[in-house]
Structures are given as C-alpha cells and as structure tokens.
Amino acid sequence: MIKILALVLTIVGIIGLILGVLGIFGSSLIGVSPWALAILGFIFFFSGISILKRKRDTDEVI
Questions:
Q1: Neighbours of 60 (CB within 10 A)
Q2: How far apart (Å, rounded) are the C-alpha atoms in residues 60 and 18?
C-alpha cells in the first residue's frame, strides 16, 4: 500500500515538474502559476522517492 502511494506521489511530482519547467521557460499550458507547479512537483517527487527508499511495504510476507 505504501509503495502505491509513493509511486503516485512520484508520478504526480514528475508531471508537476515537467509542466512547471515548461511554463517557466516556455509557454504556459495551464492557467496556474508555473512556479507553483514546479515547487509542488519538486516536493511531491522527492517525498515519493524518499518513501520508496525508506519504507517497507506492509503487505509483504516474510
């Protein structure tokens, strides 16, 4: 369950980073501030990666 949450956070972070960087350096694809997208993408991406690195899945059978 935790791995699924971490993967979702990582994917949402990647999408936010891509849209944010494209909005900062190019044309804005969404009506939201590109800096906000980039910052939230950064936070979500690194929180997802850190959960994947540190937490074990609770559904594992040892």
A1: 7
A2: 33
Residue 1 pLDDT: 80
Contacts (Cβ under 8 Å, ≥6 apart) of 61: none
Query: Rounded to whole angstroms, how far apart are CA atoms 38 and 17?
Result: 5
Q: With bands split at pLDDT 50, 70 and 90, how would you rate the model's confidence at 30?
A: confident
How far apart CA 45 and CA 15 sit, in angstroms, is 9
pTM for this prediction:
0.80
4-34 as b/e, with b when 16 or more CB fall inside 10 Å? eebeebbeebeebbebbebbeeeeeeeeeeb
